[in-house]
Amino acid sequence: MISEKIRRLADTCEKELAEEFAVFEAVAAANTERVLQVFKELQLAERHFNPTTGYGYNDDGRELADAAYAKLFGAESGFVRHSIVSGTHALGIGLYALLRPGDTMLSIAGKPYDTLDGVIGIGNSKEEGCLADFGIKYKQIDLINGKIFNRDEITNQLQSDKSIKVVYIQRSKGYLNRDSFAEADITDMYLFVKSLAPDVFVVIDNCYGEFCDYKEPMGDLLIGSLIKNPGGGIAESGAYIVGSKRAVDLAAARLTVPGIGLECGASLGQTKNIIKGLFFAPHTVCQALKTAAFAAKLFSALGYEVSPKSGEARKDIIQTISMPDAEGVCAFCRGLQKGSPVDSFVTPEPWDMPGYNSQVIMAAGAFTQGSSLELSADAPIRPPYTVFMQGGLTYESGRYGVMLAAEECEKLKA
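The chain above was modelled as a monomer; its predicted structure follows.
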């Protein structure tokens, strides 16, 4: 049950968000127009939804989806596949495609998301077959005050270390208490890196940021998951990789094998969901942004530290709420789970989740397992005890879940 106190506060917060909501709606309208224009240019027709099996030769629906992603993201080339199991898998494809033994990967936005530890071979994740296992080195440059790229150190590294082959930028904050990056921030850094080292590949983890702005950032590879923003809550698996033709060709050879690249890959009836999800994506991302802004407003009013704050520019769909301790984190997740359309009766608990270095708790009563565009929250059980909330297929359901999370957190104060 939701108390009258929370309901009244929620109504007040919502009224104060009208101007912020209008900004999200304007971006969604512009991006929807872009999607429709691309579908028109490519002459999307019902025949493109026909499934293929086996090798999937001459699958024009698959080829249209590839072209649509490349055009929408302002890229020379690209591909989208339902068979890529996660965003981390897609990032792995890109990194293994571009890096060779003796090369160095330089992350310039601090440490990447936890699930990449095992791919790179850093921390306690010395998995057999990781990049380090192939003699690929890793370097990291932290942000200045958690906000600004360290241009001096980036310049120093690119000029002094000629083994650097990939500069890596993560758009979202991951599990770090830092700001996410806007499209303009990343594009500016891409151009800066290229001015210093034209032959270095710039790889962007674009997860959680798609369709939050009027266009997408520039990069040699731009990579994201379909069960986040661009799948629109319709695609049930998969990821995309777009960028420069050279980098995409290398990634395509890693996706399958050299000599085949993008020529094979049966759609198995998934093309319609991928394309339909792309159609829904701008609208659904708008719903998630509204949900995030509402959560920021409500929890700030209840005395919690939030980021971004209400009224601040939103660069992705992630909202963080700082909790006093682990129990606060768990209370938030319990409340949010109660507002889920699926598994609302389940009580989330911290567990040793594969790919993470500490116990993680997740609230995710989703129609598609693990879908971050559906209302969800997760957090590592470690200081500074920050909840990372994202998604909301509809603002109305997202609002309800956030109110239940607030109710559960308020119980701890009683």
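Residues 191 and 252 are 24 Å apart (CA to CA).
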